[in-house]
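BUG: 3D viewer hangs when loading the predicted structure for this chain

Environment: internal workstation, default settings.
Expected: structure renders.
Actual: progress bar stalls at 90%.

Input used:
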Amino acid sequence: MANIAISLCGEGRGHATRIATLVEHLQGEHNVLIFTSADAHEFLSRRFAGETPAGRIAIDNAARGRVRLVEIPGIVFQYSGGRLDVPRSIAAGLDYQARQLGPLVDRILRELDDFQADLAVTDFEPALPRAAARQQIPLISVDHQHFLLAYDLSQLPLALKWQAWFMSHAVWMYVMGASDTVVSAFFRPPLRRGWEHVVQVGPLLRREITRAVPRDGGFILSYLRRHTPFATLSALADCGMPVKVYGLGHREHIGNVSFHAIDEQRFVEDLSRCRGLISAAGNQLVGEALHLGKPMLLLPERAHAEQLMNSHFLSGMQCGDFTPLEQVNGDVVRRFLDGIERFRPALERLQGRMDGTPEVVRIIERRLEYGSASLRAEPDVA
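Structure tokens produced before the viewer hung:
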């Protein structure tokens, strides 16, 4: 049994879902210590329940290993007027790096001393990689964001390629000196020159998804972010089909649109039973929908470059379409529903074949077997 320290970005639910899946596969054999913040902390607290007096999460069970969750400060996207505010988000990130990152690394170093970590795993969180490097603990990077560095993005529009280059510098600063770099994405273009060592896997899918039996229940499922404009809800209400909306909390119905509080089991059931998905363009949810063979209309925010890139890749795979969130109207939604069958052939080729979890578990077990083999630094950004 090894001691594995894991850190993850707390923004959104994709990182948390990915790491929860990984921990479920590791906790039977290993002790796990998790560092995270914000949405991810809330999600994982429910997933691995059992609050201790110290405010940490613990599961003590000889058959399942031990999981501890430690809340840390993290970077949070900034919004203004219901839209992602990129300048404020960048400023908040720089302030975090200047004021909080150093003390946090020192805190994590003390935690790692107590935990006696054999391995560190990070999903786009900057403190644990720095602490692991100082203690010469092997580090595995498992995230989506490294596609900005490692993937051939030539098929993207010029503006998005420029944004990918700009954003890639933040990825490089977040994670340095990883022994293994794994990119978890629903798309898989060629790797860039100099990044051939990167391992490409599909999204890490929770057991509820891999065990689900998809069928058509005659309704649309929608997962929306907190700042979704009312015009989007009006467009869904006017689509002529029942729509179940998650992500905005419970509220009164609007026409055929019903609103549901986040319930992981119920959400998976609805995802497996829906006719199609109309959603924000997060990598994790897109991968889950592809695994279940669900056509998608993605609604990326215009200021959210990563979601726009995800949307272009999905469209190129012919498994769905996209429209910027700020431009959605009833005609867009009805056009998607009227042509939903055109996505079925491409979806059938991918259905049931998206899960990257077994490969990531193999990489972790291999690195534990190798022990503290010499770390390989990532190449410089071109």
